[in-house]
Amino acid sequence: MTLQQFVEVLYMFYHKPTVIGLELPTRQTKKGKLMPNYELPNDEIDTITIKTQNTAGTTEPVPTGDVFSVTSSKPASLGTTVGTDKGGNPAIVLTPLVQVSPGITVTVSDTAGLKVATLVVDIVQDVTPSNIVLDTADATHVSQPVPASPGP
To answer: Residues 65, 62, 21, 74: what is their CA dihedral angle, to the nearest 10 degrees?
Structure first.
């Protein structure tokens, strides 16, 4: 085996998808960290793109001919199907069937034998903001000269 062939085999090993991942909407993050459960408003149907990643966590193309499937731990509460996103990529479609239901496990698997992806979904009621809060923990600070006025 030549060095070039060895490098190609090594590249294929590290750049082969091994795990299924889900591309979650930004509303599911708080201060840059993923929220523990995916909050799905009961009046929305959400579509989440399916991605595949290699052992290093880099996104790789979906294996040719791979077929995905999705299941819900509470199918009477949360409908799940495999569809496509706006770009035509494979995606899961989550449809609430009840007003409120916490802790539903969604499992995505495939025919290529990749490591499955799981997502814990909470079906929630109205998530429209109802009050104003100030995020003092993340306030920014800029230096200025001390004001000349001593105060009131």
So the answer is: -20
Q: Give a three-class secondary structure readout of the chain.
A: CCHHHHHHHHHHHHCCCCEEEEECCHHHEECCEECCCEEEECCCCEEEEEEEECCCCCEECCCCCCCEEEEECCCCCEEEEEEECCCCCEEEEEEECCCCEEEEEEEEEECCCCECEEEEEEEECCCCCCCCCCCHHHCCCCCCCCCCCCCC
Name the residue with tokens 């840059």. Answer: 32
The DSSP bridge pattern shows strands 38-41 and 117-124 to be parallel
Fold of 3-128: Immunoglobulin-like (2.60.40)
Backbone angles phi, psi at 4, to 5 degrees: -60, -45
Amino acid letter at 69?
Answer: S
This prediction's pTM: 0.68
pLDDT in tens, 44-64: 999 999 999 888 888 888 888
